[in-house]
Write a structure and sequence with these properties.
With 301 residues, the protein is an alpha/beta fold. The protein folds into 3 domains: 167 residues, NAD(P)-binding Rossmann-like Domain (Rossmann fold, 3-Layer(aba) Sandwich), CATH 3.40.50.720; 70 residues, N-(1-d-carboxylethyl)-l-norvaline Dehydrogenase, domain 2, CATH 1.10.1040.10; 43 residues. α7 links the parallel β6 and β7.
Length: 301
């Protein structure tokens, strides 16, 4: 995900340092970035040439966070979603320049969890991008109990500068806003499959061609207003009693992980991806999302 975030900054004219301790990861990121830039240019979504955007991104191979971030004013951490690893990294970033804002792209942990034990937790903020990060507009900006107001505001303005739609999360809560909604949908989808109500194909088609079809134009709360809140209340009163309220992940997904069916990266998940390369599938998805992005920007003018 790091290359998509780096690309968002570089496309906005900012200088970027893409750092990792693994040369293979850096090289793969640059390869994917080339493909992303080609598509963005094809859809007329770059203000510069791909070459000029790419020239703003410098790679840095190092296992020393202090060396990797030296001279940077804003850092976005994109390491695996493992709390112990994030805490270790941020504790090592404690010693970098005091004016540098330290942000995490965590998708589930609160800022206070990540910054616990730091000497400078006031400059730590959450910036949750969404895959693919160079296309999806939203960034959830969330703060910890010690995060300074100026840090939050600077971060919000920076997200606007790179063309994102920042939403401020008003209170610390795991998963923030969108991932809690996505988790609730996934929980119910897996439950419906467990109960034999629907297949993966039919569930995804139902979602994409109904509420998913409306979402980019009309959010769920605005849709409730259109439907009539009295109608919504009556329907919810009846339906809520039968909704899944499990507090552990579904055995449907647990079984797939156990069998090594991890999705696109392993060739199988809910669907079978064998026969097409990851690059082909990714390009197809990105083409569709870029069409949506153009329409979204037109509506938001």
């Amino acid at each position: 995900m790091g290359e998509g975030i780096a690309l968002s900054f570089a496309a906005a004219g900012l200088s970027v340092r893409l750092a990792d301790q693994d040369r293979h990861i850096l090289n793969n990121s640059l390869t994917r970035m080339g493909a992303h830039l080609k598509l963005l240019a094809e859809f007329g979504l770059l203000e510069d040439t791909p070459a000029r955007v790419r020239s703003r991104i410098k790679t840095f191979l190092s296992s020393d966070p202090d060396r990797a971030v030296r001279g940077c004013t804003f850092i976005v951490e994109c390491i695996p979603e493992i709390l112990a690893l994030k805490r270790e990294l941020f504790s090592r970033l404690d010693d970098c320049d005091g004016g540098t804002i330290l942000s995490s792209n965590t998708s589930s942990f609160t800022v206070s969890e990540i910054s616990r034990g730091m000497r400078t937790p006031g400059r730590v903020v959450g910036t949750h991008f969404f895959m693919p990060a160079h296309i999806v507009p939203l960034v959830e900006v969330h703060r910890g109990k010690d995060t300074g107001n100026a840090v939050v505001e600077t971060t919000r303005k920076l997200m606007l500068r790179i063309g994102k739609k920042p939403v401020l999360v008003g209170k610390e809560i795991p998963g923030f806003i969108v991932n809690r909604i996505q988790a609730a949908i996934a929980r119910e989808a897996n439950y419906l499959m467990e109960q034999g109500v629907v297949t993966p194909d039919d569930f995804d088609m139902a979602a994409r061609s109904s509420y998913g079809f409306r979402l980019a134009s009309l959010g769920p709360l605005a849709q409730a207003d259109i439907n009539g809140l009295d109608t919504v209340l009556r329907g919810n009163t009846h339906i809520y009693k039968s909704l899944c309220n499990a507090t552990e992940p579904s055995p449907v997904i647990a079984d797939k992980v156990k069998k090594g069916e991890l999705g696109l990266k392993s060739g199988r998940g809910y669907y079978d991806y064998r026969g097409k390369s990851q690059e082909q599938i990714t390009e197809e998805i990105e083409r569709n999302l870029l069409k949506q992005l153009i329409l979204f920007r037109e509506r938001e003018k």
